[in-house]
Write the structure tokens for this entry.
Amino acid sequence: MSEFVHCSHCNQQNRPEAQFCSECGAKLEQVCPGCGAQLLVDAKFCDHCGIRLGAVEAPEGTTGSLIAQESAEASRPEGERRQLTVMFCDLVGSTALSAWMDAEDLREVVSSYQVVRSVAA
């Protein structure tokens, strides 16, 4: 972020912590370099595209969504642990049955079982 905050109404330079322009009294806002959204002066991230403000400059012709994506990827940790639940169901004897049945025929048998089972339940 720059040393001063410029008022978008009169272009007056104001202190970084100022909330209102010292020249015209307008509420000071900053503009996102990625998407152009109006933001509060003390915002650290754009609430429209997610770009980190002050850390990433928007190159000419770069869209805000691309900048936000690059910023998010740069701040993402190398690996991520997630809790995962896996459920596996098997019909007794289906593995042996698959050894001597054609895959399509086995699928029909299992599908028929599922239909009968769902009606019975």
Notes: The longest strand covers residues 29-31.
